[in-house]
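Hi everyone, sorry if this is the wrong subforum. Our group has a chain we'd like a structural model of before ordering constructs, and none of us has done structure prediction before. Sequence below.
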Amino acid sequence: MSEQQWTAPSSAILFQGFDWTLTTTVGSGQYYSSWTPDRFNTLVSAGVDYMWLPPPANSGVFDQSTNAGYLPRELDNLNSAWGTSDQLQTLVNALSSNGIGSVYDAVFNHRVGATDWCSFENPNWPSWYTTKDDEACDHTINPGTCSNPFSSPASNGCSAYNTDSGEIVPYARDMDFKNPDVITAYQKYQCNLRAADSHNVPYVGSRFDFVRGYSKQALQSFAATWTDTSTCDTIAPGSKNSAIQQQFCVVENWPSSIYKTCDVLTLQSFLNEIVGYISGVNCAAFDFITKLALTCAINNNQFELLSANGKPPGLIGTMPLQSVTFADNHDTGDSGIFGDGQRLMPFDLKKAGNNATYASMLLMANAYVLTHPGIPSIYYPHLMTFQTLGMNTLVQKLGHVRSQLGIKSNAGVRIVTASSASGNLYAAYINPDPSVSSAFTVAVKIGDADWCPSFTETPAKSGSDCAGTVVVSGPDFAVWSHPQGVISTTTSSIVASSSTPAKTSTATSAKSASTTTAISLPPPNGMQVKLASYSYVNGVLSGQLEVQNLDYQKVVTVYYEDGNGGWNQATNNIPASYNGKLPQFGNYELW
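Answer:
Right subforum, don't worry. Here is the predicted structure as tokens:
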């Protein structure tokens, strides 16, 4: 694995390695040690690159039954309901040995006290690190528990410096991120987590919880702590700080207002908010818009929500390289068993009526996520515990297929249909990596209506017109692959990052009368010839190539497929001529 660059396509798959009730179902203190070699093999087979681990700090009990770590109490005490600090370190090292990086769940927005609401211990922080508009500072609610750091009494119990810089949570103390000392305190904690002479847990990534509680500027400071390893040398001098640079970073940004809505305008408004928050930040964001669109489409027979003017409706349709998609997580869906857990944005178990139909709904969502742009996240019970309809095995195979087919975060999407008019059907062709090829070599279908791909510009009208090979299928979903696929002829049908490179095949289809648009990006490392642009108009095929200057005396010939699918090299060829140098790309020429 290499350092995650959010401006480049990624083949990564994230795995959320826990659910909300796992400390109860596995047993308190038994989670870290429950990971055995056969479970690592499941992750490897599913193509998992990163495992998001639960918050490690000793914490309070959230709802009197679940101690999942989201009420951090003693940050420097890594003995928690998940297990001991030694077991955590052993698990992270074992994951690394299997080629899987560990992602730290950074719950920074809030803390709880050790003996009262504001007694922050291990590390010891003063009570005025709390925001002054926190409920603990209201004498009518909690008289006298937050000490006054100033000589003269203030009008509230905390006498803190500032109001909250984001949304207030009612269940813990909101930290004051306008206070630079609070930012530094958390950064020092980040450094100590990985320092060899401190906690020595070699995390390679971060998931930032509830970033709506603090500013974008604070997030940028936290994201930079592990990205630039010199930061820890400044903040924690003398410590044996880790030289491992951060490889993965994702933020959780979602408001309670979208838990239940399926309103398209609300979705678009929130999408704009997410885009604004992560623009210029070296992190991705969880794509709650795609999650909500899938939930509404499947629950309410509104499959048209899966197309926004021909594009995917979520963050993957706008900033796919910085999008982490998911079918469910510990907040939105089930934990332990069907129908248990938080279920704040769930698929409708009541509508399903039985476990088999419900499992089919979850599988459709996973099939979408694991074939589309963005970095997909697989949820623990979907892969490890839910066995109805062989769900865990099918999700494992979907992850494996994504890896085998080379689908990356910049994947192109050509939506064929998204409708519930005559049965529920979403179908699309997928270009696994537009920086390598212009061909849409994957097809996916979800929904109860029949469909199969033709992998041509002409839709299949009968079974005999179907093309490609089914690589994985289940109730109401299927994925096909094709060695050549649909050759893209217009950029308008491709949904990908604005930095998507142009087509790179030296063989083109002469079936269309459309023109491609060149995108000025260099060829991938090691590529000798890249197709920059082409057109086929009125029977004339023309284009431009980026050619590596390997020899001064060379002949460049373009071979192409004719309208009948033929590759007659004797007749279907065009000699290319030198047109100039491309110094911006290094040793390349334009032909």
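For your construct planning: The first helix runs from residue 22 to 25. The longest strand covers residues 477-487.
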